[in-house]
Amino acid sequence: MTPELIARYDQRVPRYTSYPTAPHFKADVTAETYASWLAELAPDGPLSLYLHVPFCAELCLYCGCNTAVARSYKAVASYVVCLEREIDLVAQHLPGPMAVSHIHWGGGTPTILSPEDLERISRHLAAVFTIKSGAEIAVEIDPRTITREHVRALAASGLNRASLGVQDFDPKVQETVRRVQSFEQTAQVAAWLRHAGVNGLNLDLMYGLPFQTIESVKRSVDVALKLAPDRIALFGYAHVPWMKRHQALLPEAALPNAVGRVEQREAAAAILIQAGYVQIGIDHFAKPDDPMACRQKDGRLHRNFQGYTTDEATALIGFGTSAIGSLPQGYVQNAPTTVAYREAVLNGRLPVVRGIALSEDDRLRRTIIERLMCDFSVNLDEIASEFHWNASNFGSEIDAIDELAQDGLVVRDGLTLTIPDEGRALVRNVCAVFDRYLENGAQRHSRAL
């Protein structure tokens, strides 16, 4: 990818973990709307559950999540009560007891909960829902704060996949972003997990951080490979200090430019591919026999608010502050502050404050975007037929695609679009062609590269 292309296409575009994206959610989707959507779910359809824990022991300066520092455990303990209340509120509106195929704990730092409270919530979920045999139960872990007792509690609750946050192993980078974490700490937690029978191990790495170089990123990847994870997520740091004020504390002069970010990403990807990992979408790598790699090969990979996923449930229920849910009718989001979230659930109200109802045009475009993000290829005619749409209506989009094709971002063969290997880093720019909402709200998104 040439510097000229990088300069031209390093625009603000969504990560497309949903379509329409969250900046376009509106307050006319209310708790009452959500209640009716829950009641309309097919009783035999499996659910996916997401639990958001908006607390950390300390704040990493690169963080873009909805989280805050917990000064004492009192706030965390009261939050556990709120999660239980919300689970019960949701269950009251479901058409009956429903099966669950995926559970994902995110944050923040889910393991800031005590081992007892982690088990308490897990028991509560099992009492309200039917957890399917073989369900994926995953948690995001900060290796600096988790204990072996946490691991035992999670394993006893059925945990079978863990994502260890790393970002970078270089001491200077760690000190700058306020996340000092040794390889030994990370390796110890990985050993605890495997000893407890938690065999699905993911590592999260990041490029584009202050003081990172091509060589330092390569060293971090080499160190990470010593742990032999099943999956590695390689995320680009999103610098949005106007949205996350703590990011303004990072030295902007030490951030790599767009060309440097691309070089870091390509260098890291080359090492992972050489090590035998399969590239999954734009930011994941997996061992060839990993379910994610198998789903990509079969064209059954999906994308949701946790990123790339093997989850095929048609409804994702989000619990906790700011959590987003995805239902056949549309998207919903809980109150963005823990104060407002707590006030709603303790008063017996579903804490949803906004969302968006999906039109058929939204569903059509969502499908196109998801297949591009997951498969790097889509047949517009097939998708149009699925939604009883005339593909000739894509006239303006095809004109825009042809312009991108001149720069090598996409190849068009009739109504089949394919992203070549050299254009994969800019697939979000191709997806944006089909985004009817993007013009309003582009400032809310990170850059493409």
Task: Summarize the helices and strands and which ones pair or pack.
Blueprint: H1 3-9, H2 31-39, E1 47-53, E2 55-56, E3 68-69, H3 73-93, E4 99-107, H4 115-128, E5 130-141, H5 148-156, E6 161-167, H6 171-177, H7 183-195, E7 200-207, H8 214-225, E8 231-236, H9 258-274, E9 278-280, E10 284-286, H10 291-298, E11 302-304, E12 307-309, E13 315-319, E14 324-327, E15 330-334, H11 338-346, E16 352-357, H12 360-375, E17 377-379, H13 380-386, H14 395-406, E18 411-413, E19 416-418, H15 427-432
Parallel strand pairs: 1-4, 1-13, 2-3, 4-5, 5-6, 6-7, 7-8
Antiparallel strand pairs: 8-10, 9-10, 11-12, 14-15, 15-16, 17-19, 18-19
Description of the structure:
This protein has 449 residues and is α/β, with parallel strands linked by helices. The chain has helices spanning 3-9, 31-39, 73-93, 115-128, 148-156, 171-177, 183-195, 214-225, 258-274, 291-298, 338-346, 360-375, 380-386, 395-406, 427-432; strands at 47-53, 55-56, 68-69, 99-107, 130-141, 161-167, 200-207, 231-236, 278-280, 284-286, 302-304, 307-309, 315-319, 324-327, 330-334, 352-357, 377-379, 411-413, 416-418. The chain contains 15 helices and 19 strands. The strands form 5 sheets. It has a 9-stranded mixed β-sheet, with helices on both faces. A 3-stranded antiparallel β-sheet has the order 14-15-16, covered by helices on one side. A 3-stranded antiparallel β-sheet has the order 17-19-18. α4 (115-128) packs parallel to α5. It is globular.
